[in-house]
Request: fold
Amino acid sequence: MEQLLIFARHPEPGRVKTRLAAGVGDEKALEVYRLLLDRTQLAVTNCRAQATVWLAAPAQLPAAPDTPLWPGFEHRQQVAGDLGEKMRAAFQAAFDQSATAVVIIGTDCPQLTDGHLREAFGALLTHDVVLGPAADGGYYLLGMRRMQPAFFAGKRWSTESVLADTLADAQRLQLKVKLLPELLDIDTAADLAAWEQAEKAAQRQRPGTDAVR
Reply:
């Protein structure tokens, strides 16, 4: 059984994309996060794996806890702790349900498609681990066939060393790793500008599409 885990937040002003908000303001950051949610949902909807949305604890807003982020998807709340502890608990829950391949993603990667998700699950037929490298030195996707606790310990989360440290763990444990294409995560104003430039460049290359000015 294939399981897809999605780490997300309710789109609440001042509580999403805080590093991005430092450069563009809360309103723009919220607008960007809603776009990221939409893009992620599109990719996930077209993926055949069983999907669960793992939500960060919402602010104390009356409607937030009772409003599904994506209706029709299973929702669970992330455990307390750092990102590694949260991910470890989500992976363990999936493997406890007899999952044979588990992939986790966030909602920061606008370039993620259902094709990347299919490639990730396909890779787990012949590899122990699959990683989607992010341009900032982290990863936008992690998948495995069995629990690897080392991946969730001893990391400086949200830093440029996360991918390298995870690959070092895999090498030490003699695991076979598949790397997906590198994609952009949007965490800062600079990331947003880089993605917007990449979108314009891609649009100019499409046949019959006028250049974006």
Summary: The longest strand covers residues 2-8. Residues 2-188 form a domain with the Spore Coat Polysaccharide Biosynthesis Protein SpsA; Chain A fold (CATH 3.90.550.10). The beta strands are 2-8, 50-55, 74-77, 101-105, 129-133, 139-144, 177-179. The chain has six helices and seven strands.
